[in-house]
Amino acid sequence: MNFIEDLTTNPGITRALPEAILETLQMIAISGFFTLLIGLPLGIFLHVSAPGGLRPMPVANRIVSDVIVNITRSIPFAILMVSLIPLARLITGSSIGPIAASVSLTIGTVPFFARLVEAALRDVNAGKIDAALVMGSTRMQVIGKVLVPEAMPGLVAALTTTMVTLVGYSAMAGIIGGGGLGRLAYNYGFQRFDTTVMIVTIVIMVILVQAIQWIGDAAVRRVDHRTAATAGVRKVRRHEPDTTIGV
Asked: What does the sequence similarity comment in the record state about its family (predicted)?
């Protein structure tokens, strides 16, 4: 049986693959949403409370940065997920499945995303922040109207990187009981030595990552006002009349 025929007759592809794709997308969507919901404010807090920030809080910043973020990031995800099984069972009522795996995925990626958010905010021109403060803006106004909008391209790029990371994490979660493409590759591709299932799973994971990266790059270009301004200048220059006089 050749590879093409195996694609249409292999039960791991015809029956198990569609469900595995949906479970993977479910894990990525749920954990991505909560990672953004928790990680964005956490990253803003890390930047604002740092020494030299809008509201320096050295003790609180050290506790959140060194104890919560750094320790969580230092634990390998496979070990972190196993250790969080009781918490996942407490929150979702189950220790297996994509919804239960989303708990560990969220906790594992929130510190990663928060650090990327902190780095993106750090790149904002300090002069714009100082100008807003001089004009009488409050700290919350500076954060909402200057800091976050100016860092938007970096924030979108950070979210894109996090979503790509979640694709890899979801595969590891599947092996431990989360379902999805990871479980399919392990149960069919590895344990049953099914090369076709393994190849198809890898191809789908690559396509998924490429799609997320393409969408993220397009979103970055769209929210980057510097790129939009440059494009506008080029467009105006193309439509400028030629005022040179030929000799």
From this structure: Belongs to the binding-protein-dependent transport system permease family. CysTW subfamily.
